[in-house]
Structures are given as C-alpha cells and as structure tokens.
Design a protein that fits this description.
Elements: E1 3-7, E2 13-17, H1 18-49
Antiparallel strand pairs: 1-2
C-alpha cells in the first residue's frame, strides 16, 4: 500500500504517500547516524591524541 486515502468526519480527504514518508524518515535517520558516528570518531581521536603536543 503505497498511498492511502482517508476521509475525516468533516468529509475532507487526506492523502498519505507512504513512499515519501519512508524516504524522508530514511534521510532523517541517515543524517542522525552520520552525526552520531562523526561525534564518536571525533571523541576517539581526541582521546587518542591526549597528551600529544601538535
């Protein structure tokens, strides 16, 4: 089911495009994972370089 039509009590039709929702959520999750991994890598690099003078 890629798209659903739902009618509310007021008679208005709401269309939900599940494909676009999945794509948008995928982008949000991907961005969040990238930010988390970058933060972890930065923290690990900082930990490894502690005590070294550059």
């Amino acid at each position: 089911m890629a798209q659903g039509d739902y009618t509310s009590k007021s008679g208005k039709i709401i269309q939900i495009d599940e494909g676009r929702i999945r794509e948008h959520l995928g982008e949000i999750v991907r961005g969040s994972v990238q930010e988390t991994l970058n933060a972890l890598l930065d923290a690990e690099a900082d930990r490894l370089l502690q005590g070294w003078s550059l």
